[in-house]
Amino acid sequence: MGYSAEVTLNSVTTATKGGPPIDIKPESGTFVILEITYVGKKGKYPVNPMYWHLITPDGKDIDQIKGNAMLASPADDLEAGDVEAGKTLKGRVALDAKLDPGTKIVVTDVLDKPIGEWVL
């Protein structure tokens, strides 16, 4: 592989409405907001908010396309692109889901293979 990065899930918070200018409500009643940092280690590491998923305790996979997540407009959205070696990229991803005990946050690679997991 010609690229690598250190990926950190800095925080997980919730909100009951989106940010300006849309201020939309989540279909699930809650937006889960992930704050993420990528530090490039080698080559150009691909970054995309679509690589982030929430897996509910009953196994339901929720990505940014589900519900109103794409319209949540969290400040500092994570943008798709590459992080180069020695550079840092930070951003937020919103997911339209309830945050229940046992929920997992999963990050995948470009082929949708899980490469990291955090149990909440």
Structural description of this entry:
This is DUF4352 domain-containing protein. It comes from Lentzea tibetensis. Keywords: Signal. With 120 residues, the protein is mostly beta strands. It has a single domain (4-119), classed as Immunoglobulin-like (Sandwich). The chain is 0% helix and 48% strand. It contains no helices and 9 strands. It has strands spanning 4-15, 31-42, 44-47, 52-55, 61-62, 81-84, 88-96, 104-108, 114-119. It has a 4-stranded antiparallel β-sheet with strand order 5-4-8-9, with no helix packed on it. The protein has a 3-stranded antiparallel β-sheet with strand order 1-2-7, with no helix packed on it. A two-stranded antiparallel ribbon has the order 3-6. Strand 8 and strand 9 form a beta hairpin. It starts with a strand and ends with a strand. The relative contact order is 0.28.
Draw up the topology in text.
Layout: E1 4-15, E2 31-42, E3 44-47, E4 52-55, E5 61-62, E6 81-84, E7 88-96, E8 104-108, E9 114-119
Antiparallel strand pairs: 1-2, 2-7, 3-6, 4-5, 4-8, 8-9
InterPro entries: Immunoprotect_excell_Ig-like (IPR029050)
Keywords: Signal
Protein name: DUF4352 domain-containing protein
H/E element string? Answer: EEEEEEEEE
Strand content: over 45%
The share of residues in helices is: under 10%
What integer is the average pLDDT?
Answer: 94
Shape: globular
Q: Label the CATH architecture.
A: Sandwich
Radius of gyration: 14 Å
Q: Compute the number of helices.
A: 0
Please give the oligomerization state of what you see. single chain
Largest sheet: 4 strands, antiparallel
